[in-house]
Design a protein that fits this description.
CATH class of the largest domain: Alpha Beta
Strand order of the largest sheet: 1-15-13-7-9-11-12-4-14
Structural class: alpha/beta
Number of domains: 2
Bound molecules: zinc ion
Number of helices: 7
Mean pLDDT: 96
Oligomer: single chain
Distance between the termini: 16 Å
CATH superfamily of the largest domain: Putative cyclase
Largest sheet: 9 strands, mixed
CATH topology of the largest domain: Glucose Oxidase, domain 1
Radius of gyration: 23 Å
Strand content: 15-25%
CATH architecture of the largest domain: 3-Layer(bba) Sandwich
Low-confidence stretches: none
Number of strands: 15
Helix content: 10-25%
Order of helices and strands: EEHHEEHEEEEHEEHEHHEEEE
Amino acid sequence: MGCEIIDLSLSISPVGPEHDQPKIKYTDHKKGAFLLGLAGLLYKKESLLKRLFLWLIGKYRIKTDEWPDGMALAFEDVRMDTHAGTHLDAPWHFGPTSEGKRAKTIDEIPLEWCFSDGVILDMREKEPGSLISPLDIENALQKIGYQIKPYDIVLIMTGADKYSKEKRYLTDYPALSQEAVFWLIDKGIKIIGIDSVGFDRGWGMMFSDYIKTRDKSSLWPAHFAGRKREYCHIEKMANINKIPKPYGFKVACFPVKVERGSAGWCRAVAILDENRE
Ligand SMILES: [Zn+2]
């Protein structure tokens, strides 16, 4: 095969701690046989009345036992936010403009940004609720002996994906400071990923700071960095710790093309080329 692929994504799941957890209505093969058996009603060669008559007398009906093995097709109806599961946030999420121009929506993100060399910054030692500073990033890079180059995809490893089904997933992780985001953007970075629920601290922490001070800068500072300087981030990644080396691999994170969307779900992966050291 020549390459190994590590899944950096969470499943889209109805089970988890978020208030707007996805809703999935599963239709199995048996139920699919019943529902597809009704499809003759949509066979528009005849008037609705005639179709209904032909269905009632059985001519337009496919009964369950007529399907191969008595089963038809399985499918799902999914209701969820664009920010559910592993997803890429477009600059439009942060504000209507970025760097003085209309901010890009998710369908406008250059795909070249979404397939590039990856580098892991290990932030697992940082306290939950603390902020990652430019110095933390410099130290993490020094530890692995790597210099960031433009268009690298930077993966912030907090380890919070381990408890993505628990309440503490919403609060217990270090977040990016605005200065750290600018530091990375200055190096030519367009995509930064994190394996926690969000790029900023949990809502409750930001809110309690805000009501004490009424200081706007306590609200989503890392997100709002994207109004001044254009960048994207991936939230709710997973398995960054399964990548066996801190750099020397590719990341692919193509977002689903939601028209005019502020974000798109993505199946983020790390690609390791076994023929390359
Ligand atoms: Zn998001």
